[in-house]
From TrEMBL:
Positions of the Glycosyl hydrolase family 36 N-terminal domain: 29-257
Alphabetized GO MF terms: alpha-galactosidase activity
Protein name: Alpha-galactosidase
GO biological process: carbohydrate catabolic process
Domain Glycosyl hydrolase family 36 C-terminal: 620-693
InterPro entries in the record: Aldolase_TIM, Alpga-gal_N_sf, Alpha-glycosidase_related, GH, Glyco_hydro_27/36_CS, Glyco_hydro_36, Glyco_hydro_36_C, Glyco_hydro_36_N
Gene3D superfamilies: Aldolase class I, alpha-galactosidase from lactobacil brevis, Golgi alpha-mannosidase II
Length: 712
């Protein structure tokens, strides 16, 4: 909902619990007024009428107050917009008009007469999430191109507080999404990626809280960027204590795009959320926003999958894949995925990338016969691809060595024996479209795992007049290709992967059905990774696998099948072990776990998440609530001194209701579960348990209360 002040220069956007207000001065300065609890238009107008701060000789009164600071004029903060054209740099804009666009979008239009530049700032409330982005149009009638050195999506202004605490998700390969909180000191703190993709090192999300917010109480401000390439978020605490957050695509100010007259660009969405419900309330609002407005078909649960990679590596054959598929079907798996090495000369990581046709020695009849066999077993069929990469030892590279990113006269750096195709080039995208469309048309493929295993290093584009635009243009090329494939093959699901969790963001989630959270499948490590991931993204997109024990990929840890399954059941369950080596007893136990997961899946994937105990070395637990159904997953890494594991206090329940537990047969009062907790009975090392509860309509009758839990 948008409300406009009497003079058409104050705007108020409101969601269910929050409001966002801004004001245009008589000098066309766009000022921030309010972001926080829901207020009335009269409150916003009172804020607009408040006196401005006094002038100070070495400071600008605009700093820390503008909605979108530009380069030039009386400003010293980091500019959100920097342009150059005709030898003139900076921006001096004048307000043109405001308009209301689709879905209640507020559009504020400005113009710079010298550059002929038109800037549109857009705001839209999605529930309590504010979506913001900017559109730049070169509207000049001359022949001068405009160079966009930097165009951030938004600048967010926070209210004055004594102390701020900064939360971020940092990491590396196999250790993504680890949550850390620290005091926000004066100056700038910058997170981002210079790697051409979202990156393992930081998720494009951050949060700020003051006054010691907890999991379920206190104010939290958080922002997330919908962009899958290089990016930057700057959090600036100014000398007077004001805090501003600026973010967008690109990692520096060296140049993003060249705009000829008549052309325009739009920045990615930079979304912001205020919550008064602590970090848990913040997460649940982000999850609901993504399920409602970002993720395709988010109301449909994702299938249990089997992936062959950890069982086979590069040594695969059709016969071997058939045997694994038969074992997977026995477990109740619903989607069978052939990972790397089905194509070209791909017998190792040194060859074959770029040649997306089945290896004739390994799959003499192509992928069709295997896909038909998988379908006959009652499962869907999926494949792994890495379209943006190429090996030097490939037919594609031998035919088109100029298609990769490179600097003329310089060595072409290889990581993982790979080079990066330049998807900013139309001929490269056309070739990939033809190959991938033929692949999906020629065999009954239901699912594609799209990987990206190589960061940008030599991001050159020989022959391009403005090669700096490659950084953003490659991502737009990736988006365009994926959008085109989804439109042509609407029944095919896509997973985003990038050496694990290297490409996880709101931009890629708008185009994929789930993401690969991490290459680390160790069930204990995964608890911390999944805890951080859940700060922003829902379980509905968080792929997690059960693999072999000991964990041969990373740490050799030995864990029970129970612990591995309960860890992976916190998201979209998958299996990735070598099933031909599993005993009959292990397969029977796994079948029971898969059946249980299918029962609780609607609650886990579509319900509200409550983080009950953090994975800090002690007992850990999460809870999901959907309607009357409740699921609790609990883990105990180690039992110290023989002490009994403390009860887990549940959340989000009706204290006046009773809840029946399908696993123990007990009936619990809601108030008791909330204030005294649920006893898990966990003991020893690496123990885990699942609890299914259902709210009773009649607290005096528990008969059949827990049968058919979570059916939908």
């Amino acid at each position: 909902m948008i409300e406009i002040g009497a003079d058409d220069r104050t705007w108020l956007l409101s969601g269910p619990t929050s409001s966002y207000a801004l004001r245009l001065t008589d000098r066309d300065e766009l000022l921030h007024l309010h972001w926080g609890p829901r207020i009335a238009l009269a409150d916003a107008e009172a804020l607009a009428a408040a006196p401005t701060p006094p002038e100070r000789p070495f400071e600008s009164w605009l700093d820390g107050r503008e909605e979108y600071p530009v380069e030039g004029g009386p400003r010293f903060v980091r500019p959100a917009l920097s342009v150059r054209g005709g030898g003139v740099r900076g921006t001096e804009w004048r307000f043109l008009r405001w308009a209301e666009g689709a879905d209640g979008e507020l559009q504020l239009h400005f113009t710079d007469a010298v550059h002929g530049l038109q800037v549109t700032l857009s705001y839209r409330m999605r529930g309590d999430v504010v979506e913001r982005y900017a559109v730049l149009l070169n509207a000049s009638t001359g022949a001068t191109d405009l160079e966009v050195l930097r165009a951030d999506s938004a600048t967010w202004t926070l209210p004055p507080r004594e102390r701020w605490r900064f939360s971020q998700l940092h990491g590396r390969w196999a250790a993504e999404s680890r949550l850390v909180r620290s005091e926000l000191t004066y100056g700038e703190r910058v997170i981002g990626s210079r790697r051409g993709h979202t990156g393992h090192q930081h998720l494009p999300w951050m949060a700020l809280d003051a006054d010691g917010a907890t999991e379920e109480h206190g104010e939290v401000y958080s922002c997330a960027l919908a962009w899958s390439g290089s990016w930057r978020i700057s959090v600036h605490r100014l000398p007077d204590g004001a805090v501003q957050i600026t973010g967008g695509s690109g990692h520096d100010d060296s140049g993003q795009e060249l705009l000829p007259p008549g052309t325009a660009i739009a920045t990615p969405v930079f979304a912001g959320l205020w919550s008064g419900g602590g970090f848990g309330g913040t997460s649940r609002t982000w999850h609901a926003y993504q399920r409602a407005h970002v993720i395709p078909d988010a109301d449909e649960v994702r299938p249990v999958l089997y992936n062959s990679w950890e069982a086979t590596g590069f040594d695969i054959s059709e016969e071997q894949q058939r045997a694994l598929a038969e074992r997977a079907a026995e477990l109740g798996v619903e989607l069978f995925v052939v990972d790397d090495a089905w194509f070209g000369a791909r017998v190792s990581d040194r060859a074959g990338l770029g040649d997306w046709t089945p290896n004739p020695d390994r799959f003499p009849g192509g992928l069709g016969p295997l896909a038909d066999h998988v379908h006959a077993l009652g499962m869907r069929f999926g494949i792994w691809v890495e379209p943006e990469m190429v090996n030097a030892d490939s037919d594609l590279y031998r035919a088109h060595p100029d298609w990769v990113q490179h600097y003329p006269g310089r060595a072409r750096t290889e990581f993982r024996n790979q080079l990066v195709l330049n998807l900013a080039r139309e001929d490269v995208r056309s070739h990939l479209w033809e190959q991938l469309d033929a692949l999906l048309t020629g065999a009954p493929v239901d699912y594609v795992k799209w990987d990206f295993n190589r960061c940008f290093t030599d991001a050159g584009w020989p022959g391009e007049p403005y090669p700096q635009r490659l950084w953003d243009a490659h991502v737009h090329g990736f988006y365009d290709l994926l959008d085109r494939l989804r439109a042509a093959h609407p029944t095919v699901a896509f997973e985003s992967c990038s050496g694990g969790g290297g490409r996880v963001d709101l931009g890629v989630l708008a185009r994929t059905d789930q993401v690969w959270t991490s290459d680390n499948t160790d069930p204990l490590d995964r608890l911390a990774i999944q805890h951080g991931f859940s700060q922003i993204h829902p379980a509905r997109v968080m792929a997690a696998w059960v693999t072999d024990s000991p964990n041969t990929q990373l740490n050799g840890r030995v864990s029970s099948l129970r612990f591995r399954f309960v860890s992976a059941m916190a998201g979209v369950l998958g299996v990735g072990g070598d099933l031909t080596r599993w005993s009959a007893a292990e397969r029977a136990e796994a079948r029971d776990w898969v059946e249980l997961y299918k029962e609780i899946r609607p609650v886990v994937q579509l319900g509200d998440l409550y983080r009950l105990r953090d994975p800090d070395g002690g007992p850990c637990a999460v809870q999901y609530v959907r309607g009357d159904d409740v699921v609790v997953l609990a883990w105990l890494p180690a039992q110290a001194y023989g002490q009994e594991t403390p009860p887990v206090r549940l959340r989000g329940l009706d204290p006046a209701a009773a809840y029946a537990c399908a696993d123990t047969g007990a009936v619990h009062r809601g108030a008791v579960l909330l204030h005294h907790g649920l006893r898990t009975g966990l003991r020893g090392d690496l123990d885990a348990a699942v609890f299914r509860l259902r709210r009773l309509a009649d607290v005096t009758d528990a008969t059949d209360a827990y049968s058919g839990l979570a059916q939908s």
